[in-house]
Amino acid sequence: MLANFFGKSKPVNFIIIIVLFFMYYVLDFIVVQNFEINLDYLFKFLLTFPLFLGLFFLFNFVISKNNLTRDDSYGFLLFVIGLGFLETVVLDYEIVLTYLLLFLFFRRLYSLRTLKIVYQKLFDAGLWLGVLVLISPSYVLYLILLYAAIYLFAKITIRTVLIPIIGLVTPFFLYFTYLFWNDDLATFNQLFDVVLMIDISFYLTSYYAIFLMLFLVFTAVSILLRTGNIMSVSNRFKKSWVLLLLHLVIAIVFIAFVDKKNGIELISFLIPTTIIIANWICTLQKKLIINIVLMVFLLLSFAIHFIV
Length: 308
Fold this sequence. Notes:
Blueprint: H1 2-6, H2 11-31, H3 39-65, H4 74-85, H5 93-110, H6 118-135, H7 142-153, H8 158-181, H9 185-189, H10 206-231, H11 236-257, H12 266-281, H13 287-307
């Protein structure tokens, strides 16, 4: 049933998946809030839920516009299910806005495959990344992904190397100017007071160990079963697949370097994994297997809140 319904990308699918996402809020209300709701919780819900709709639109736009998956809803469904695995729903609008910026960066990065207005895309990607680095220095890791996209889709030239850097430093320059005008350069200097330390103990807890193991196992299966076929065909998606794999590696390194871990940072990890898994699911000939895989993800996304 799930295979038949989500095997095509239709407007009704978007609505059903949004309803599923709303059910995770209901689950949070039952399990975390213990049926107690207050004005603060309601206000945060009314603020973050529309932002998530924008986030979902950008996710769909990136994967459909750049042909990262076939014409189906598996990637979007898995992404929302992944959000359902988080111990509590995200009610911080600043975090959602940060991921909106990240998707604006991915929108420009993956669209380099079309080789249209390349310089503008490179500047925009660098600009969005610069804003993200101001929020958290760990985002500078994605600069590797940007230059990998340039190497795969465009050409390494002086312009393509320098333009992203110009975009990247522009928010820093504007922020510096603002702080200089307000005589608060100490705040700017704190941006460079960064201590990089890898600590994955948070992910070794039983809850997130199950979460990560499930997605990593299916991601590994998808990579093993799809890479050979993709690389044997001469088309643009081959380069997009390589970029997706690098995206996965950088996302894993990124969440390892996050200073204060609370599980929400795993959204960065879900972006490439759900796209990669969706690429494998769409190739399965037996719909029974697709239904089983999707049901495992769906049921466990609810059950994990009660069994762990």
